[in-house]
Amino acid sequence: MFSHLLVVLLDWRVYFNMHSSIIIPKTVSFYSRFVAESLIEPSYIISIGEDKHFAKFKIQHHSVLQLGFHDIDSYLGEKYTIFSKEHAINLIEWIEKKI
Fold first, then answer.
1. Rounded average pLDDT over 58-67
2. How far apart are CA 21 and CA 43, in angstroms?
3. Which of 9, 39, 78, 92 is the most exposed place for a label (fewest CB within 10 A)?
4. How far apart are alpha carbons 91 and 72 in whole angstroms?
5. What is the CB neighbour count within 10 angstroms for residue 80?
6. Nearest Cα to Cα of residue 57 among 49, 45, 67, 69
7. Whole-number mean pLDDT of the chain?
8. pLDDT(44) > 50
């Protein structure tokens, strides 16, 4: 039923001022599974798949976060996984570790 996969590619840029540094994504790109699996430049990647079907990359990337959930916005039963608070926490913690 749900067969797509989204891969988000992040390219970080560091900004400095007198008192601190801020790291924000310089570019954010969205790719299908087919395109993402053929990337040849190491990157920071968020791979979103359903039923643990994630991209199989040809190279070693800087860091890959894999999140598994279905593209739904309300509960449809135990067969489907909705984006949860735990997914959000994993995403925030992954980004904080990168900055």
1. 90
2. 21
3. 78
4. 18
5. 16
6. 45
7. 76
8. yes
